[in-house]
Write a structure and sequence with these properties.
By secondary structure, this protein is mainly beta. The chain has one domain: Tubby Protein, Chain A, CATH 3.20.90.10. The protein has two helices and twelve strands; from the N terminus they run βββββββββββαβα.
């Protein structure tokens, strides 16, 4: 299996840094940063085409700053468990949808055509490892959190999680698995935080 490491990072230093609880990540391959991700806050919106969205949007950029993709939770799903994977132009590449489950953490991964291409499950007794398959037929990959509660405890840096891909996966499926790690953080490990620039707690 191939693998990537996703590591939460600290906000930039400055007077407002202590109030800025936006998620930031380094995306690493063999120890080298190949991309960076940052949650977009309502008072830190750039002038690009993602500016009209609410805070539940993560932009992923390459080391030169070019946008690679975005992960966005629609306003209508703000209290739900759905996020879309989009190109910089806003075209849908896929979607993640949580499923009701007693104890286990479960969600489906959809492709650009709206077809389910992977099912993800973290069992109740092993809640920090999500295994990806299709209808239970063979493992396609997994996402493992380094420590329980890593995202809420180490939001200011350190820790992280690993994404592993089956060798038979194509580029589109690998992208979906990478984005699924960010969906997992936003959906299953989210903790209340200060909305940038407002001093108010998040949801």
């Amino acid at each position: 299996m191939g693998s990537l490491k996703i590591r939460p990072t600290r906000p930039d230093a400055g007077a407002s840094a202590s109030f800025d609880r936006r998620r930031r990540y380094d995306i690493l391959q063999t120890g080298r940063a190949i991309a960076f991700a940052e949650e977009q806050g309502t008072d830190h919106i750039s002038s690009d085409q993602f500016g009209q969205w609410n805070a539940d949007t993560i932009l992923v950029r390459d080391p030169q700053g070019a946008q690679l993709f975005a992960l966005h939770r629609p306003r209508r799903a703000r209290l739900g468990d759905e996020m879309a994977l989009l190109t910089p132009a806003g075209h849908r590449l896929g979607k993640f949808q949580r499923r009701p489950s007693l104890g286990d953490k479960v969600f489906d991964v959809f492709d650009a055509d709206g077809m389910v291409v992977m099912n993800a499950r973290a069992p109740f007794l092993s809640p920090w490892t999500f295994t990806f398959s299709l209808d239970g037929r063979g493992e396609l990959g997994h996402i493992h959190c380094d420590l329980p509660g890593i995202f809420s405890i180490f939001r200011d840096g350190g820790g992280g999680f690993e994404v592993r891909f089956a060798t038979r996966l194509g580029g589109d499926e690998r992208l979906l698995l990478l984005a699924a790690a960010l969906f997992i953080d936003m959906t299953f490990y989210e903790s209340p935080r200060v909305t940038p620039g407002t001093g108010r707690g998040g949801r």
